[in-house]
Amino acid sequence: MPEGKANPKGFYPEIIEVGIVSVKNQQIEEQFSSYVKPNKFPLLTERCKTFLQISQNKIDQGMTFSELLAVLNDYNNGSSTTVITWGNMDMKVLRHNCQMSGEEFPFTGKFRDLSMEYKKFFGDRNQTGLWKAVEEYGKKATGKHHRALDDALTTYNLFKLVEEDKRYLQKPSPTTIGDRIDLSKVLNKYAT
């Protein structure tokens, strides 16, 4: 987050925190959280520190971007991974950071932007913020807003709620005569 309106020369957003919730068969298998040291702009602006309530010291103690990519590659592990985010910025920033570092993008699976699914499902005109969407369900978000792991947990909880609503509203297949009448009884009655 640059200070003021003017971006420093060559500025681009860099990842400074990661939060992952790994889910398999609707069960959380693992959680991961770390700060990440920026490569190009290692010093956080006052605006960034204030907005995220984060200290320079925490960032300085974080993992490198290369270490982050190794972690993400482990989560991708060649299986049919689906990455679910709230909004598309996380993946855009990750792709751009990979390009700027000359690194391969770590994911090969599918991507789902839950905020767009939410928008379409509820017919909203604008995208809804993650924490507002949770409140619209009458629930509370997990932890602190703009903390990577807390946002990842909140996204997963919202994902479960949206998927449950989708299943509930799915049009069931129409019943057949066989569903309404036990034909074996009818046939036995008229069998000779």
From TrEMBL:
UniProt-listed SUPFAM superfamilies: Ribonuclease H-like
Gene3D superfamilies, alphabetized: Ribonuclease H-like superfamily/Ribonuclease H (3.30.420.10)
Record-annotated Exonuclease domain positions: 4-168
Coiled-coil segments: none
Keyword terms, alphabetized: Exonuclease, Hydrolase, Nuclease
InterPro entries assigned to the protein according to its UniProt record, in alphabetical order: 3-5_Exoribonuclease (IPR051274), ERI-1_3'hExo-like (IPR047201), Ribonucl_H (IPR013520), RNaseH-like_sf (IPR012337), RNaseH_sf (IPR036397)
Any one GO MF annotation of this record: exonuclease activity
Protein name per UniProt: 3'-5' exonuclease KapD
NCBIfam families: PRK07748.1 (NF005838)
Matching Pfam families: RNase_T
